[in-house]
Amino acid sequence: MKHMNFSMGFFSKIMLLCLILGFTSGIVYSEEKFKAEKYLPKLLSTKNIEFAPTFTPDGKTCYFSQLNTKLGTFRIFKIVMKNGVWSGPVEAEFSHQYNDGAPFITPDGKRLFFNSRRQEGSNRLSNWDIYYVEQKGKGWSEVKKLGPEVNTNYSELTPSVAANGNLYFHSQRDKDTRVGIYMSEYKDGKYQPAVKLSAPLNSGKGDGDVYIDPQERFIIFWSNREVLGGREGLGNLFISYRDKTGNWKEPTPLDFYDINTPHEENWPRLSPDGKFLFFSSTRDIKKKVDIYTVEADFIKIPDE
Known about the structure:
The chain has two helices and 25 strands. It is globular and about 45 Å long. The chain has one domain: Neuraminidase (6 Propeller). It is mainly beta. Strands 6, 7, 10, 11 and 12 form a five-stranded antiparallel sheet that branches. Strands 1-25-24-23 form a four-stranded antiparallel sheet, with no helix packed on it. The protein has a four-stranded antiparallel sheet with strand order 2-3-4-5, with no helix packed on it.
């Protein structure tokens, strides 16, 4: 669910494929190297494209996006762990008719945000907006759409929500030459008008696919800025920490643990306990895109 009409490397390639098919600082690292591996390849490594996993707080249910490369449809699926074994995937109960993707479960598990192109009245939207469902018993409520404080006539994608409700996402609006990261503060039970975050998070070269730490101490995101010896083009993952004044520090590329490669890496997420990073990568040229995971001990929270 990525950068739709935007010049955003990998996702532009996905959308081109869809059209062809007939539709769109200062981090201390441990000495021991871990290598990113495919996550649940028997379940999540298919002929289709899987990305953007998100977990319930107990870690026993995982929702993720899938692009059906034959039909050109985006859907949200889930897998469930029972007796220590993952089963599924099955289509999420709220995602079976429209193009949906990039699910994100809030830290308390009470809401699931996602982006979608849904029909409103007789009009089918061409842009993507952010929607959510609320926990209701063992399932989810009816789908609800965020208001104009967040959604615009442009596309809003890949939501990520902090514990206080603040919403981070990416969009490309009228004055943007490339997609950029936005934030909408959650205040008194309402979302405030979204604002574009300043440099150094936004580079002007394309930044998005945000994962925000529940306490907003750090942010992991996709960026098209220069990486790996000055190469720019496909895009890789970066992390930025917040300093004591609340400002974001210069982002650092995740050029270790086999996270960033000469291919594209995007859609970063952390497990509920923060111990594992999940992301998607195009490194497997036979599969095109898979979900990978690696230990997240590279995250070093600065002293408060």
